[in-house]
Design goal:
globular, two-stranded antiparallel sheet, mainly beta
């Protein structure tokens, strides 16, 4: 339904129902928990996605603490563990030239972040 808004599960602000990001708190997937890899709905206590089988939490490269599935940076040391497409919120490699899910050109996006 166009124009229908639901509360963001992180900040409580009203957000369009089909939003990939909350425009207020900038968190990905503001309406339900989803697998960061395949976007399938998940539950908070799951260790792996029931669709793609990938781990929902990954270890931080710097300190080893678990990061995920709603977080992209380590809560302890702040190291970024996952990068996301700014258009669809799919997890992408830091070196990716385009998003595998939506085709967004990431090369120019990464350049704009470095400025």
């Amino acid at each position: 339904m166009p124009g229908y808004k639901r509360a963001c599960r992180f900040c409580g602000q009203l957000v369009e129902a089909n939003s990939a990001y909350c425009p207020f708190c900038r968190r990905a997937h503001p309406h339900q928990m989803v697998c960061p890899w395949c976007m399938a709905p998940i539950q908070a206590d799951w260790q792996a996605c029931n669709k793609c089988g990938k781990a929902l939490a990954i270890p931080c490269a710097k300190c080893g603490n678990p990061v995920g599935p709603d977080a992209d940076a380590c809560a302890t040391c702040g190291t970024v563990a996952r990068y996301r497409c700014p258009t669809c919120a799919a997890v992408v490699a830091a070196s990716a030239r385009q998003c595998d899910r939506c085709g967004f050109a990431l090369k120019d996006y990464w350049k704009s972040l470095r400025m």
